[in-house]
Amino acid sequence: LSFVDSDDYLEYDALEKMSNFTQNGKNDIVSCSLFLKKDDTLSKQDGLYLGIPVGDSFTKNELSQSELNTFLNGMNYPVAKLYKSKMIKNNKILFPEGIRFGEDLVFVVKSLFLADRIASHEDGVYIYRNDSENSSSATRTISNKLFDFALALEQIYTFMKENNLIDKRTEEAFKYGVITHSLYILKITNYDQNRS
Hints:
The chain is α+β, with helices and mostly antiparallel strands. Helices cover 41% and strands 17% of the residues. Helix 2 (65-74) packs across helix 6 (168-195) and helix 4 runs parallel beside helix 5 (146-162).
């Protein structure tokens, strides 16, 4: 199972590459790097900067606290990933309805928490368009959707409590996520104000 936004696209062999990285189903999620396309320029957004293991599979318990923080908050986009459909279906992981901004975060964090093994690879497979011709990105018209983010965080925390996933490490990672995403929202709000 993989996702592509309507204004983005995949490398021609993206799904084959990610499928090979699953190691015959050993990994529940494979996450790869993406390219940022701005007008005529492509720049690779390496997963290496996330500070998590690259090139091999790992479990959440194998991560240090700083790695866990970036794992849950740096890999929070649903694209450039291949999910084991059985894991998604068995755990009934869905994009929440009624949330226009932050619904991706809910889906991805739930998936990351429930996955047994995850692989991160630096191969770029996904092209994220952020050029002047691409005006459909949610981050370009976000100001009227900011309150949805609070609902998304509430759903994530409720999910963590209901599944007994809260401990010292995960609570710190959640708090780290609240701070980093709040700063991101302030940045986007400022961008919207400057455009209007």
